[in-house]
Specification:
about 160 residues, alpha/beta, Rossmann fold, five-stranded parallel sheet, 6 helices, globular, binds 4'-phosphopantetheine
Length: about 160
């Protein structure tokens, strides 16, 4: 059974993330969406909320699990026995950061491969930070995020 981790902040999970997850499932038996707790950042959704939303968005897919991690990603990869780390590439500008991260991860733990998957072109310009910004200014996020995330964003606005 080949397990891949699909790590990220996922604040929030977008259609672009879902697209990469579906592509990863074509290559690996099991894919764990690995949610970075990122204590340093002030996320819109807590790690637990992000996990719940990802589960809701992926409930039609087999072979998906969702977990949080804190600390080094490669330590989590070692603990889970993952064969690969999946990262989505949207455009050339993503590459510099991704390349450096993949190289650092390889130095720290050579047994895990980073696999880059190209997102569908329709999602190439979506990012979680754009979604947060559109939400902040009361824009329509339904084109960018699956319905469970859209609902959660709407509820968040109601309690703000
Ligand atoms: O969705 P993001 O914010 O681009 O995801 C980045 C993430 C969380 C995958 C990356 O920052 C990460 O792996 N952080 C954990 C700390 C770590 O392992 N750093 C070494 C590799 S640069």
């Amino acid at each position: 059974m080949a397990l891949a981790l699909y790590p990220g902040t996922f604040d929030p999970f977008t259609y672009g993330h879902l697209d990469i997850l579906e592509r990863a499932l074509r290559l690996f038996d099991e894919v764990e969406v690995t949610v970075a707790v990122n204590a340093g950042k002030a996320p819109l959704f807590s790690a637990e909320e992000r996990c719940e939303l990802i589960r809701a968005c992926a409930d039609h897919l087999g072979g998906v699990r969702v977990a949080t991690f804190e600390g080094l990603l490669v330590d989590h990869a070692r603990q889970t026995g993952a064969a690969a780390l999946v990262r989505g590439l949207r455009q050339v500008s993503d590459f510099d950061y991704e390349f450096r991260m993949a190289f650092a991860n390889r130095k720290l733990y050579p047994d895990v491969e980073t696999v880059f998957l190209m997102t569908s072109e329709e999602y190439a310009l979506i990012s979680a930070s754009i979604v947060r910004d559109v939400h902040r200014w009361q824009g329509d996020v339904s084109l960018f995020v699956p319905p469970p995330v859209e609902r959660a964003l709407r509820e968040k606005r109601m309690v703000e």
